Amino acid sequence: MGISGLLTVLKPIQVTRHLSDFSGQTLAIDAYVWLHRGIYTCATELATGKSTKKYVDYGMQRIRLLRHHNIQPYVVFDGGPLPAKQGTESGRKQRREENLAKAKALAAEGKQSQAREFYAKCVDVTPQMAYQFIKALRAEGIQYVVAPYEADAQMAYLERIGLVDGIITEDSDLLVFGCRNVLFKFDFASSTVTSISRADFSSVTAAEGGISLAGWTDTQFRAMAILSGCDYLPSIPGVGLKTAWSLLRKHRSVEQVLRALRLEGKKSVPKGYLDAFHLAEKVFLHQRVYCPLDEKLVTLTELPAEQGYDAEMEAYIGRYLMVIHCLDHATH
């Protein structure tokens, strides 16, 4: 999940913090991250059709821990599939099917421990599982929202409008969406998280992380991440994060980078890559989200008036939905 190598590059500014440091704050939680972790505790049962709700228990234990430290959880669920991620999701589905076949074969041979490894890789979070988690949240009066599309964009929006102070996730994409305070590696046993603050980006130097972000704008950071390969656009073969940084540092713009790569001829730039890049960038900037203040769908950031909408962009950022996935407040 996220941008390959990004967290490693940002390691110099990662800080381990105790949950008590966030007392009095509201933190958005990527529900599917905890659900995915939770289903690993009962993967065999789920893959073989046995009834279990251990994945709900996993999430609720962490919710209660946050509340113990006077943190208000705001749980965010993924909504409908985003067309921009169709290729990513179909690849994941194929891998799950392959792992299920391997698990069944190993179980048939009596190799249960090996089978469990593959069962863990083949199960996926279903809407029914998410609903079970939602019911548990309702029972304890926890705020939640189902995003119209991706939880990432929804959490970024909640932080942008001031409804949450930070985000708990395992997905580095949140940093590309522009989030200011992102918390990774939630450790239940020690009640700690690893914090990355956007305000510290300029402290990342080439000597420490292999790249320098000093003086870089959000636009440059986002361009680097997309060029290196993201959920919405595969990378140009041979272009990873550090190469993308180096190319942008030298050539300044994506257009100039692509021109230089084509002239050099060592890396093959796919046909239509620049248009695909701009569409991917629009997903990070303008994906549709739900505004709980105005109770309507909006874009993460406003589209410039001169851009307007066309069918291709509409599909990428998420079509406007007539049925709104609204917020259930604690008093609901």
Automatic annotation (TrEMBL):
Subcellular location as annotated: Nucleus
Stored InterPro entries: 5-3_exonuclease_C_sf (IPR036279), HhH2 (IPR008918), PIN-like_dom_sf (IPR029060), PIN-like_EXO1 (IPR044752), XPG-I_dom (IPR006086), XPG/Rad2 (IPR006084), XPG_DNA_repair_N (IPR006085)
Primary residence: nucleus
GO terms assigned for molecular function: 5'-3' exonuclease activity; 5'-flap endonuclease activity; DNA binding; metal ion binding
SUPFAM superfamilies: 5' to 3' exonuclease, C-terminal subdomain (SSF47807), PIN domain-like (SSF88723)
A GO term from the CC aspect: nucleus
Cofactor: Mg(2+)
Single biological process term from Gene Ontology: DNA repair
Superkingdom field: Eukaryota
Gene3D superfamilies recorded: 5' to 3' exonuclease, C-terminal subdomain, 5'-nuclease
Domain XPG N-terminal: start-end pairs: 1-99
XPG-I domain residues: 138-210
Pfam family, one: XPG_I
Keywords of this entry: DNA damage, DNA repair, Hydrolase, Magnesium, Metal-binding, Nuclease, Nucleus
This protein's name: Uncharacterized protein
